[in-house]
Write a structure and sequence with these properties.
Elements: E1 2-9, H1 16-29, E2 33-40, H2 47-57, E3 61-65, H3 72-82, E4 87-90, H4 102-112, E5 116-124, H5 129-145, E6 154-161, H6 162-170, H7 178-185, E7 189-196, H8 208-222, H9 225-254, H10 263-296
Parallel strand pairs: 1-2, 1-4, 2-3, 5-7
Antiparallel strand pairs: 4-6, 5-6
Helix pairs in contact: 9-10
The chain binds uridine-5'-diphosphate (UDP) and magnesium ion.
Magnesium ion is lined by residues 92, 94, 96, 199, 204.
């Protein structure tokens, strides 16, 4: 069995050598047939140079180098697509995900026949309160909004087997929320709990802007509830408009001296029209949502195995 370790790297000069050594050590200690697929996501520091140097000395190392910074998810995606192993393990370059969990993942894969073994962060050491809070809130919000239920507090640190790799390669959507897609695929998925370490060196490559973009991809690609918001608001507004219309007409009939000329018709028109507009935006939104789903081109189903009589 061959293990591919996929490592996305963006400006990881201070850690990358150490990460390589650690991963290699774990692979050698366990006598795995292995390859390490580094993806350099357009680093501006010496990361690529170091990786090239490593690859020139170690035949088990593959380096995929991007023309510019495309982002963490595209880097992971490229790594999976270039891996040739029977299983691929996705791991961050900063040693926050401990490489010595990999053999445990492989054990679970082999012993329990798990197609996916995903890391669940029991504790997150050395990360800011803000990061932990927003991450926790995000995973819960996403579950609330999405029809697919995702395991909480999991990152991309996981093992996927050949079946999942092959299905992953077939996905056509460009903007990928990978951890979500892999959960969505199904098959046998088993969690493994681990403590997330602080970054070995360097700074986070996920500033707030990237975090938000990532979170929005997760939400928009897995939920159409935001689209339905317009329709719901539209119905509420229309209902208020109707109630108000009754009230205004009553004032006009019972106590005409209180009704300012033109007030009734203006108010009713504004509120009622507002409601109708929101409903129509909602309907248009729904169609756009359907177009979006079709464009993503996700398969309608994934077949686990085909059981039939041999002729
Ligand atoms: N990363 C990447 N491209 C980016 C940002 C990050 O390839 O544009 C990589 C980074 O090198 C690391 C992983 O993604 O291996 C996770 O990033 P980081 O550790 O900075 O995120 P955090 O752990 O702080 O959420
Ligand atoms: Mg990190």
């Amino acid at each position: 069995m061959k293990v591919s370790v996929v490592i996305p790297c963006y400006n990881e000069e201070p850690v990358i050598m150490k990460t390589y050594e650690e991963v290699r050590k774990v692979m050698l200690e366990n006598n795995y047939d292995y390859e390490i697929v580094f993806v350099d996501d357009g680093s501006k520091d010496r990361t690529l140079e170091i990786l090239k140097d490593i690859a020139s000395k170690d035949d088990n190392v593959v380096v995929v180098s991007f023309s510019r910074n495309f982002g963490h998810q595209p880097a992971v995606s490229a790594g999976i697509k270039h891996s040739t192993g029977d299983v691929a393990v996705i791991i961050d370059a900063d040693l926050q995900d401990p490489p010595n969990v990999i053999p445990e993942m492989i054990k679970i894969h082999l012993e329990q026949g798990a197609n996916v073994v995903y890391g669940v962060r029991r504790e997150r050491k050395g990360e800011s309160f803000f990061k932990k809070f927003t991450a926790k809130a995000f995973y819960r919000l996403l579950n609330l909004l999405s029809d697919v239920k995702f395991p909480l507090d999991t990152g991309d640190f996981r093992l996927i087997d050949k079946k999942v790799i092959e299905e992953f390669k077939k996905l056509k959507e460009r903007d990928k929320y990978i951890r979500g897609l892999i959960s969505w695929m199904g098959f046998k998925q088993v969690p493994i709990y681990y403590d997330r370490n602080p970054r070995f060196a360097g700074e986070t490559k996920y500033p707030l802007k990237k975090m938000l973009r990532f979170a929005l991809t997760g939400i928009f690609y897995f939920s159409d509830k935001p689209l339905k918001l317009a329709t719901t608001l539209g119905f509420i507004t229309t209902f208020i408009g109707l109630a108000l219309a009754v009230y205004v007409i009553l004032v006009r009939l019972i106590n005409p001296s209180q009704a300012i000329p033109g007030w009734a018709s203006t108010m009713i028109t504004i509120i009622f029209m507002g409601g109708i507009q929101l409903i129509t935006i909602g309907i248009i939104g729904k169609y756009i949502g359907n177009i979006f789903d079709e464009i993503k081109g996700r398969p309608e189903f994934i077949v686990k195995e085909l059981i039939k009589k041999k002729d």
